[in-house]
User: Fold this.
Amino acid sequence: MSGPPTGVTAEMITFADESPASVLSLDAPSGLDSTTGEAHQPSVRADATLTLALPKIGLKTGAARAQVGELYLSDVGIPESLYRAKSLQIAVPRLFDEGDVVRVW
Assistant:
């Protein structure tokens, strides 16, 4: 997704934000650019976000933290060797030694 949500999606986000219920976002709050951290209007204000595999860069920005809420990271079974592959060369610490879900903040 890129740009501000529109139509039914925007209506659903507004409904969720106005609801007294707790909101859990999966991977990134809808309406939030997970690369830049820009919160479009509307965007979900989650109580917690469960992101997958690795934290998205934009979730860690100061502007995005209010939208993200508590941040958790879930193991989706990507082998460490894939991150170290010549094409990616990502240095990833052993994130899931203590369990399949870890709290980031």
The domain at 7-103 is CATH 3.40.50.10260 (Rossmann fold). The helical segments are 7-18, 62-68, 80-84. DSSP finds three helices and four strands in the chain. The chain has one domain: 7-103.
